[in-house]
Amino acid sequence: MSPPRPALQGFSVPRTPSGAASLVPHPPWFYVGDFLVVDYWADPEAVTALLPPGLEPHPDPGRCAAVFADWQSCSSDGDELVDPSRSQYKEVFIVVNALLDGEEVTTCPFIWVDRDFAMARGWMQGFPKKLGEVWMTRSFGLGGPADPGLARGARHGGTCTAYGRQVMAATVTLERESAEGSQHNAPGIVNVRHFPRLAAGHHDDPAVHELVRAVSRDRSSSPTWEGEATLELSGGPGLEHDLLAPVRVGRGYRYSFGYTVDDLETLIDYTARGEA
Question: Domain 29-188+218-262 sits in which CATH superfamily?
Fold first, then answer.
């Protein structure tokens, strides 16, 4: 009789007898990063058209935010921190404001990230991540010509390209510490987890299609600086985020933020309601 085969393990594919090859490790996932955020307004009709079922337009229906983030993350053993290619990544995303049963929320229709593990982890959480090249101004707390720091007059920027084309560019010139921070990015986020079927005859019958609320804990934040901002969204083939191009740009913000994720709340199972 052949010996029993070991069970395949791992939180995500690829699954192996040890589970060590999984692209995404088992939660909890710990995050810390630097943020550059620009509050702005897009065409209200374009924002409303992108809202998933269950969300209603915000009373200020054009409200959006563009968010650049330079992240470091790890799982429980923290081994990624001494193998930084598995812990560090950058991303940029757009959130739009909406209402869920009268509660202010945000949702993310577009997002780009520069590492595969972060893209897969985002899909699990309902973020529609695509690969891109993202860059942000860094600050090291030392001052000098190469370190703008967090001080009056400091200039910070972020850029993103995808498919060899510019996707987004933003700048923030800091003026002062902010009492409230970004208002457009402040409400909690809800997203759509969508995994299609490939079987013939079932292409319009997704395996997973649900509205979910992000759940996090152990949140911490640095003081936030704010200032005058610029924002450009550039379109192209396969890039529809410019539907949300700014018609008015608000304030920009720079801060650091950390939190832990090991949960997700399902709000609506669209498949149970027959919604594709």
Answer: Acetoacetate decarboxylase-like (2.40.400.10)
